[in-house]
């Protein structure tokens, strides 16, 4: 069986530059590796932040993409978890130290020695990592997850970031029957948060700048939808929620949102603005409220999320694009012109 070493990809050659078609080297399939024929790759807003060096210095050329769905086409000699033909996904990281207390708990995303990012990272040997805007990926079997047959690969791809990024905090803060959850923003992350919180049995409210997407929000599972551009909303909803989940990547008036929480409520960030934010400590003290953040999930929780989505018929709302439309898609994401996730058909690379 032939081992792939050079494959087609789309890369960002320099900060803020348009993506270009190129080729990249993939490592040979090692004993514990699987070779994935990538079928679909989601476009996450974090791809754009990193391509623009919005979160700090980055590695170029960069092949973005950490919402990867595909099929195993080759396995290493020691692989036990997967076989050729299996449907698999890869999310935001492809390795971790495997030995720290968090890796041992299945919380690899909080690895004390640092996870190896799927792209814009470095392997343990120092080589740069390249992501899912390509035709193939070689990854250790322990850092891939199985995509249930009930999920189509195209709508499953965004679950590997947008899905787990919202599922993890909803589970951690006990979203379920009797809980009132507010989701800030109805974008790539927000629409998944609404679907998941609804399926968990919570009462779900969307807080968006306008009512432009109200019909979509209610269709996706929201019970209520408010426009935060109307200042009276913050008075009307004061003390309403157990959890406010912010999915937006822009600074917010956090104090105003903290006032929407019940006593012991939590405001949790999964969106990551490039600019710093501020908060008045009295907004937390008055009501014993928490201001928190949440990353993605570990491998076990990501698998749990995929199984939950399969059970409840949940996939991302996507717009399938060709690879030569990626640059246009980036512009549209920045302009909030997507409902609700662009997914690249990697056969077009």
In brief:
The chain is built from eleven helices and 17 strands. It has 349 residues and is of the alpha/beta class.
- Low-confidence segments: none
Strand content: 25-35%
Question: How does the major sheet shape up?
Answer: 7 strands, mixed
Instruction: Tell me, briefly, the overall form.
Output: globular
User: Which CATH architecture of the largest domain?
Assistant: Alpha-Beta Complex
Helix/strand-derived category reads alpha/beta
- How many domains make up the 3D coordinates? 2
Number of strands: 17
Estimate percent helicity: 10-25%
Rg from alpha-carbon coordinates: 20 Å
Report, as a whole number of angstroms, the end-to-end distance: 23 Å
CATH topology of the largest domain: Quinone Oxidoreductase, Chain A, domain 1
Work out the helix count.
Answer: 11
* CATH C-level of the largest domain: Alpha Beta
List strands and helices in order, with pairings.
Blueprint: E1 6-11, E2 20-25, E3 33-42, H1 45-51, E4 68-75, E5 87-90, E6 93-95, H2 101-104, E7 116-117, E8 136-140, E9 145-146, H3 153-156, H4 162-172, E10 180-184, H5 188-200, E11 203-208, H6 214-220, E12 224-227, H7 232-236, E13 241-246, H8 254-258, E14 261-269, H9 281-285, E15 290-293, H10 299-312, E16 318-321, H11 326-334, E17 341-345
Parallel strand pairs: 10-11, 10-13, 11-12, 13-14, 14-15, 16-17
Antiparallel strand pairs: 1-2, 3-4, 3-8, 3-17, 4-5, 5-9, 6-7
């Amino acid at each position: 069986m032939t081992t792939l070493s050079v494959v087609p990809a789309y890369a960002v050659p320099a900060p803020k530059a348009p993506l270009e078609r190129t080729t990249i080297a993939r490592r040979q399939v090692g004993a514990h590796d699987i070779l994935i024929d990538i079928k679909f790759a989601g476009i996450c807003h974090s791809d754009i932040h990193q391509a623009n060096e919005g979160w700090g210095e980055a590695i170029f050329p960069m092949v973005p993409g950490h919402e990867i769905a595909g099929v195993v086409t080759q396995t290493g000699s020691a692989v036990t978890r997967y076989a050729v033909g299996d449907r698999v996904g890869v999310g935001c990281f492809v390795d971790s130290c495997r030995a720290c207390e968090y890796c041992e708990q299945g919380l690899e995303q909080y690895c004390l020695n640092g996870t190896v990012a799927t792209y814009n990272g470095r392997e343990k040997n120092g080589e740069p990592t390249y992501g899912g805007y390509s035709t193939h990926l070689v990854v250790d079997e322990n850092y891939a997850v199985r995509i249930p047959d009930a999920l189509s690969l195209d709508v499953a791809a965004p679950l590997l970031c947008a899905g787990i990024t919202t599922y993890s905090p909803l589970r951690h803060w006990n979203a379920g029957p009797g809980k009132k959850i507010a989701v800030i923003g109805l974008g790539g992350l927000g629409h998944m948060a609404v679907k998941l919180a609804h399926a968990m049995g919570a009462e779900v409210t969307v807080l968006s700048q306008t009512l432009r997407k109200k019909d979509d929000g209610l269709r996706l599972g929201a019970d209520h939808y408010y426009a935060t551009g109307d200042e009276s909303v913050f008075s009307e909803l004061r003390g309403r929620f157990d959890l406010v989940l912010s999915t937006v990547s822009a600074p917010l008036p956090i104090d105003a949102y903290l006032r929407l929480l019940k006593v012991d409520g939590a405001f949790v960030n999964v969106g990551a603005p490039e600019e710093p934010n501020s908060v008045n400590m009295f907004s937390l003290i008055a009501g014993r409220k928490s201001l928190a953040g949440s990353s993605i999930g570990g491998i076990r929780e990501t698998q749990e999320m995929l199984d939950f989505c399969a059970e409840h018929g949940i996939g991302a709302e996507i717009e399938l694009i060709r690879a030569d439309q990626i640059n246009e898609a980036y512009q549209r994401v920045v302009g909030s012109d997507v409902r609700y996730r662009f997914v690249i058909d990697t056969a077009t690379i």
